[in-house]
Amino acid sequence: LYPAWASSVGYHKYDNKLGIPDAKSRDRELAFCKAQADSLHSFKISDLSDANKTDYFLIDNQLKYIEWGINEQRAFEWDPSGYNVSGGFADMLANEYDKLDTRLTNFYEKMGAVPAYYEAAKNNIVNPTKEHTELAIEQNLGGVSVFEKDLEEALTKSGLDDAMKGKIRERAKTTIAAIKGFADWLKNLNNAYPRSFRLGKGLYQRKFELELQSGYSADQVYAFAVTHKLELHEKMFEITKKLWPKYLKSKTMPEDKLQAIRIMIDALSVKHTQPGSFQSEIEKQIPELIAFIKKKDLIYIDPSKPLVVRKEPDYMAGVAGASINAPGPYDKNGNTYYNVGSLAGWEKEKAESYLREYNHYILQILNIHEAIPGHYTQLVYANQSPSIIKSILGNNAMIEGWAVYAERMMLENGYDGDKGVNSTEASPEMWLMYYKWNLRSTCNTILDYSVHTKDMSKDAAMHLLMDEAFQQKAEAEGKWRRVSVTQVQLCCYFTGYTEIYNLREEVKKKVGNKFSLKKFHEKFLSFGSAPVKYIKVMMNN
Q1: Other CB atoms closer than 10 Å to residue 335's CB: what's the count?
Q2: What is the pTM of this model?
Q3: What are the pLDDT digits (tens) for 70-117?
Q4: Secondary structure of 396-454 as H, E, C letters
Q5: Strand partners of residue 36
Q6: What is the DSSP string of 27-69?
Q7: Taking 70 as the threshold, does the pLDDT of residue 424 lie above it?
């Protein structure tokens, strides 16, 4: 049913198949969900171990999520960006899980279904949103390079004979024509009454429940975020008062707290790398993070799992500036990629705005989040989890929440890149920027909830992001675009972070002097990417 999903988790038996997203395939999905739910519900939950109970709940939730997506959300009608073949094909070329010739043969066979795939997409689409239509055009056209430059490089290295190479090149031309044809079809679509990109409260609350599987509701998390935002403002103002004489003694500090904080952040943000050094600066910091974690004995880092920093592929552009691509549980030895957005070709003003946002301090926090001990570390542990269900049905709130938790945990233990491996206390500058960064995940939640359930305008969103979260205009514009093409995902960070931090504090209180941070981290991560509410039960037993 899901060959692309299978490939993404390292199960490569169906790499030569491309699912056609038509009404028949949706009927098959619904029949599958009904049959599996009937089988699942024959188990008596009280007879299962805690680990198996968790798998039961994850499977049950996934089946409900699939049914809800088809019957109620129906994004296949209004979100054209859901149709894009490039990512799966790119992974076949980039990940060396099999011989190159085998991967190229599968690539060739899979390309045969691309025209039918895009015809089905056209038949599905009804009154799409303007925002998702624009994203679909951009990302599909960006993905064409996979079938031109990337494929040609792979063919040059392969041992296939000239006849087979010729067949692959011909089919690639047909594939490119189908992708460009879809993009042109979208450009020319007569869509006088596009659907709003806002999900609406009913769909939003149900998606939050199914996607995040939090112990808290969407309304509760939103309320937590609003309170936390105010707490962060107070902490930031205290640090601003302390740092003002050091950086701004010739200026009178404004009485308005947010204005004073903004001026201080701007003063610190001028310290940043240059456009051409953005990726190399990230690469340089990775070993420094590993050395600090070893020195402080915070968590075991497996040296045998490579982390490859690379320029973000074109087919991924337009949503986030940095991300991790990890191998799946069936492909544990594959590369983990840290994708870094390129600033090449950016106007000077836009690049400067972006680099002030990802300044000297925040770039370190970004690396903690995306790489070590954030996503990269958590996903290595997840792939070692004895439950493959927890890896395949990984919970986004736990995954993103861990990365946000890791940022705070590192600073609590004294991490500061300027002080080196022996640092025992992060500088006030580092803490101020951390709080600014933490405001990001906090305001992500406020933004996402407000836009999709309260009709927040773009002007109000920009005020929240720029004036209350102190983001640069380029970052705020990017976040507005992101909230207009995603729903609930922006809540993962704060939701999971809140749950993990609260769990740690509960465990600390319970065990007192016997508490070991390293043991807590390793035990927490050993359960795979399960929702925190289930990990909490397993850790307490």
Answers
A1: 17
A2: 0.88
A3: 999 999 999 999 999 999 999 999 888 899 999 999 999 999 999 999
A4: HHHHHHHHHHHHHHHHHCCCCCCCCCCCCCCCHHHHHHHHHHHHHHHHHHHHHHHHHHH
A5: none
A6: HHHHHHHHHHHHHHTTS-GGGS-HHHHHHHHHHHHHHHHHHHI
A7: yes
